[in-house]
Structure formats: structure tokens, C-alpha cells
Amino acid sequence: MKVVVCSKYIPDPNLPMTVDPERKRLVRDPAQSILDPGDEFGIEAALKLVEEHGGEVVVVSMGPEAADTAIRRAMAMGVERAILVTDPGLEGSDALTTAQVLSRVVATEEPDVVICATESTDAYTGMVPGAMAAMLDFPQLTFVRSIQVEGSTITVQRDYENGYQSVKAELPVLITVTASIAEPRYPSFKGMMQAKKKPIDTRDLGAIGLDAGQAGQAGARERVLEIRKVEIDKQTRVIEDDGAGSSVDEIVNYLKQVQVI
Amino acid sequence: MADKRIWVWTEIAADGVHPLSLELLTPARELGSAEAVVFSAAGNGVSETLGEYGASVVHLATDEVFSSFVAEPHVATLAWLIESERPDLILFPSTFPARDVMARLAGTLPRGVIANAAKVEFDGDQLVATVGYGPDSEASVTLNGEAPYLVQIRRKAYGASLAKGTAEVKEIDAVSSPSGNRVQVVETVQEESAGMNLEDASVIVSGGRGLGQPDNFKLVEDLAKEMNAAVGASRAIVDAGWVPYSYQVGQTGKTVKPSVYVAAGISGAIQHIAGMGNSQYIVAINNDPEAPIFELADLGVVGDALTILPKLTERIKNEK
Ligand SMILES: Cc1cc2nc3c(=O)[nH]c(=O)nc-3n(C[C@H](O)[C@H](O)[C@H](O)COP(=O)(O)OP(=O)(O)OC[C@H]3O[C@@H](n4cnc5c(N)ncnc54)[C@H](O)[C@@H]3O)c2cc1C
Ligand SMILES: Nc1ncnc2c1ncn2[C@@H]1O[C@H](COP(=O)(O)O)[C@@H](O)[C@H]1O
Fold this sequence. Notes:
The complex is a heterodimer of chains A (261) and B (320). By secondary structure, chain A is an alpha/beta fold.
């Protein structure tokens, strides 16, 4: 079974996010960027599938050259091989272009399963996987929390508002996974050493058959017109409890003040 | 110039039109003529409600393939309907199925998309949507290229409001997707929490890993009961199996916007804040003064949730 995981290199979500008002974009500082923590769940799910059924896990990523650090992390977890699409012309790509680029590369791999995260931790759009599924003409099984493959049939449980749905399809499929799918393994020292030697195939726009005019800022349909600071006039009042519940009076007063009790 | 045609992708829940779809008829009506698109085997009988909330037309397909949700037949039918009707803008609510349909539709047509918009308007013919951009900025964004524009609107960005109109129903048939129906729904399982619906609650009490152990979650439930509040949770304790997934608030859980959100033993990870940061008032109880939740809280209480929660519950009970 061949499993492709689409994973993204993003600014560390635990650090404050900065916006470049001139270029109307997120500042992406390689020193502070990492593999999207949300992607580790998909990588884990992919590794488990291959451990059970045999085959290979390939990571596909679109991003700057420095994104190889994110790929190395996936490799340290056990991924064997990766393709990184990187080109200055890709800067400023929107969700649609990203899906176009990724689906072109994924198609050449002829995978049985494509795994994405439900949404990226920096863009939060959740639009890339569904758009990719359409371009690949694969069924999309989204918000998946467990996967079972028997022969060429895949059965998954997918979250929905008030519970879950169990759905079935023939391979190949594209799935998006939630964080309940599996606890990501921590890379071992040996894994980290091996990762350094694993192959990353780097491709530019030409290699995937797109012109500069179709990608990046030039090809983007979504355009940022303006970025504004919003004033958050939050006035936090912090009180300290004495360990015996002395804060309760103040909490009650506050709740009365905001009229919920 | 003719009125712009604004479609609302409308979801039908067990008890009628999904409230988040009704909310979207408000901006649709402000921007032009509001039309609802309803693909659901349970879609008969909802046009009256949709008319009352401002839809002038309901495009209705009630075929059997729409009896449980699968994205492909929705997208095939919607793509066909767009081709023949040519709307200017399609608004999608912030629900799982809406995102599924919108994303696949974007790749099929193809069209650009804007997700998580807090506001949508037209400046002449140019679409302008407001989206959040990091914790303290927002952006105005537009879409180039051909209409229809596809925009997903954040939960509770608009309020549903009565227009007291009536809608004309235009029935259509499902279009089967070129590759056939490849996804089969085996079963659908309800896991609803016993308590109040999180998304509609005006007060929410949530608990996290700081409660220490599963039994202590009862302290959160007790306070919620006394405050007539819904109960939420962080992912840490959902993953640990203390409470079902339907309790989870955050990026990969529910987005809530109550007037008061009480967070007990929750650190305030960015993914949690993504789901509750727009609450009107936030009260946080955490024993670590450095916890990030305090940056967001209106009232921060540094202390032991296990001590404070029962006392608070008791006090509120006595106040009544
Ligand atoms: C892709 C992705 C998606 C995610 N989606 C979500 C999501 O939707 N929702 C979500 O919640 N998380 C989500 N997370 C997880 C998130 O990053 C955090 O791990 C999680 O929110 C932490 O939960 P917590 O605050 O309960 O636990 P912790 O971070 O462990 O915090 C526990 C807090 O309790 C405090 N505490 C300890 N003892 C006490 C006491 N006696 N009294 C009071 N306070 C005490 C501690 O000081 C600490 O601040 C996601 C993560 C990823 C990577
Ligand atoms: N540049 C990218 N490279 C690889 N995968 C991506 C990229 N952008 C998005 N994805 C995949 O699509 C998912 C959803 O992203 P988004 O639509 O941006 O929220 C991510 O979690 C990844 O799995």
C-alpha cells in the first residue's frame, strides 16, 4: 500500500504570530518554523497503515527550501521518502493553487491513500484537502478518527457534529484525520540519525508543469487588500486565591456584574 | 443593475433548518436576493422557515442520495446548478459538511475560496470579506476571477433575523457524479452529551487536564448545572477519554461564543483559544500564574480549581 501524507511547514504556533503589513503576509521565519503539529497525526496514521499492510509512506510538501527541516522530522518518525515542491514563484499561493500543486505531485505517485490534516494550524482554512480530492478525482473521507483497510476497501469513522458516521469506499481515497486518530510517536535518536540520509526529491514549478503566472501571488484568486490591527481592550484582572477559596466572593461578584447569575 | 444572487448552502438538522444556515440568510439578504440551496431527503417542509428568514427562492433536491451526508453527490448537483443559474456568491456555514462541500466544489469548478469570514460585503462588484489574521489583526480579502465566489462564514458572525417573506420552491433532481457514488454510509451514531448544546449556550463551563482525574470533571458539571450552563472540555481530556468528543472546544472541536466562558484547569493553548477566544467574558481558574489563558481572561483566578469549583457552586446555590 502506498500512502502519501501532505504535510506543511509552518511558523511555530506557540510563538507570537507576526504579520508583514507591506507584503500583507504572515512572516515566515525559518528559525521559528516547524512541521505543523497537526500533521504528525496523519504521519502516525500512515506509518501504522504501512506497518499493518506493508508498503511505503511518502511525504509531499509545498513550501520554502527550509521546509526540509519539517520533512526530516517526519522522516525521523519513520517516513521513507519525500517530495518538496519549492519555487520562489510559489510564494503567496492561495488554497486553490496549493491544492493544484499538491494534487499534480500526488497524482504522479499513484497512491492508495492520501492523508491530510483536517486543517493547517497556520491557515485554518481546511480547504486544501477537499479541493485536492476533487482534482485527483478521489472520494474524500474527512474528519476521520479511525481507519480500517481490508483488501481494497477502506472503512473509516468520521466525526460529525453530534457523533460519528462509519463510511466505506474503495481505494484510492483522500482522507483528512483529526487528532484523535492516534498519538504521534516521538522520533527516536536512531530515527533522527537515519532521517538525515533519506531522500528528498525537490521539484520546482517547471518540473510539475505550471508557469509562474498560474502560481504564487500572481495566480492567487484570494487577495489581501488590507491588514489592520484590531484593538482588543481586554482588561484582565488577576486575583489570587488563598488556597481555601477566598476568591469565590470576587468570582460571584464578577458573574453578577456580567449578569449571568 | 440586477440584484446580486446570493446563495446560502443550507443544512437540514434533525429538527429542521440548521441554525447556522439561518444566520447566513441575514447577510445574503443585505447583499442581494437571498436564495437557499437545500439538498436533503428531509428537505420537504423547510421552505416556509427559509422564507420567514429571508430566502426568496429555495432550490430543493430531496433525492434519496441526500438521505445521509456524502460530499460527492452534493458537489455534482451544486456544480450543475451553478452552471445553469450563475449565482454571484455562495455562503457556507461553519459546519463539517459545509466545509466538505465547499472545498471539493472549489477544486471542481475551480474557484477561489475564503474561509472563516467574520463579515462579507460588496464594494461595487468587488467582493470584500473580513477574516482574522493572527491574534490581534484582521484582513480585508477579495477573490479574483469568475463568480460565484465561495465564502465560508464564521459561526455567529451574523444573527438570524425574521423577514416574514415567503420563498418560491424550485425543485431539482440530484445529478450523479461522473465517477458514481463511491462512498457508502454504513452507520450514523449519535453521541450527544446529556447537557445543553454547546454552540447555543450563553454560558459555558469547561474543564481541562488541570482537574487531575476523570472523577473531578463532576466539579465542572456541578457548577454548570447551578449556572444553567453547558459543559465543555479541552482536547487533553477528550483524548484521555474523560468525556466524549462532542464536548471538545477548539480548533478541532466546537467553536463557541457564549457571553461567559469559565475555563477551569485549562492552559489556554492556541488550539483551544481558536474555539472560545470570541467569548464575551472569560473567567479562568488555573494554579499557574503564567498560564496563557490569563492573557485572554477578563477575570483570572490563580488558585486550585479543585478547591474553588465546589465552593463556587455552593455559593451560587445559596445565592438563589
Ligand atoms: C492540530 C491540533 C489541534 C488541536 N485542537 C484542539 C482543540 O480543538 N481543543 C483543545 O482544547 N486543544 C486542542 N489541541 C491541543 C492543545 O494544543 C492542548 O494540548 C490542549 O488544549 C491542552 O489541554 P489542557 O489545557 O486541558 O491541558 P494542559 O495544557 O496540560 O493544561 C492544564 C492546565 O491546568 C493547570 N492546572 C493544573 N492543576 C490545576 C489545579 N489543581 N487547579 C487549576 N489549574 C490547574 C495547569 O497549570 C495547566 O495550565 C490541539 C492540538 C493540535 C496539535
Ligand atoms: N503547503 C502545503 N504542503 C503540504 N500539505 C499542505 C500544504 N497546505 C495544506 N496542506 C495539507 O492540507 C491540510 C489543510 O490545510 P489548510 O487547507 O491550509 O487548512 C494541511 O493540514 C496539510 O495536510
